[in-house]
Amino acid sequence: MIRFEYLEENKDKFRELFLTAKPFPHIGIDEVCEPQKLMELYQLIPDIETPSADYVFGKNKFEKSKFRELGGVFEELYLDFTSKRFQEWLKYVSNEDVFVDETFYGGGIHQGKTGSYLDMHADFNYHPLNDKWFRNLNLLLYINKDWKKEYGGELKLEHSDTGVKTAVDVPFNRLAIMLCRGYTLHGYDAIKFPEGKYRTSIAAYAYTLHQTPLEKARTTEWHVEKSNPVKYLLSKIWVPAVRLKSKFSKSKTADH
């Protein structure tokens, strides 16, 4: 399903765009998949019922990590994302020694329904189930048919140290790739999609193997404006609360 020849023929251009982007390395690449096959996949996406684990920091966001189980074009896309060919291309473009998590932990189909939003945040760094896997890149294949700017839902990016911001549009068949670090904040504002249409993506995460951790493990860190005092306070106690919970129970995110 992925148009490998197109990606490989333009890998030098994509590498330069990614590495020089501000506020941190990222890129949006259009027409990554064969349009007819991606349209078929779009038409077969079910109504996802499993809510994400973003709790108060997101709204009406649902996930299905095990999208491969849907078979057909879903299986084909899964195999392309996890293929050696794609991972070699990704290594070159990002200049990072990475591999795609085959379990799609926290990834897979992401479906934002009516009024969905996701507050700005920095993702966890080490995989909750594989403590030597360092989360290096986020990949988001957007499947928003006939998307328009007025629908909202752009991927907002912000460098937490410099305050520099930008946004990536989220049209059908665009693959966004972004660096994942403690300062790479991202999220999206409340959407205004037409009735019956959802903000839809398939998310994959690329990791680097660290035999010895290079930094202290952290969970997702939420960055909320002080104008919302209750949520702001929750964001400040969220990390220690999750750390305490993790001592007593393992994450269930990958179960769906």
Quick rundown:
The protein has six helices and twelve strands. The protein has 256 residues and is of the alpha+beta class. It has one domain (4-217): Sandwich (Jelly Rolls).
Kindly state the number of beta strands.
Answer: 12
Residue stretches low in confidence (pLDDT < 50, at least 5 long) are 244-248
Indicate the CATH class: Mainly Beta
Radius of gyration: 17 Å
Q: Which class of secondary structure composition applies to the elements?
A: alpha+beta
Beta-strand percent range: 25-35%
The end-to-end span amounts to 24 Å
Order of helices and strands: HHEHEHHEEEEEEEEEEH
According to CATH, the fold-level topology is Jelly Rolls
Shape assignment? globular
Fraction of helical residues: 25-40%
CATH architectural label: Sandwich
Oligomer: single chain
Q: What is the domain total for the residues?
A: 1
The largest β sheet comes out as: 12 strands, antiparallel
Describe this entry's structure for a reader.
The chain is of the alpha+beta class. The protein has one domain: Sandwich (Jelly Rolls). Helices cover 25% and strands 30% of the residues. It contains six helices and twelve strands. Strands 1, 2, 3, 4, 5, 6, 7, 8, 9, 10, 11 and 12 form a twelve-stranded antiparallel beta sheet that branches. Helix 2 (11-20) crosses helix 5 (84-94).
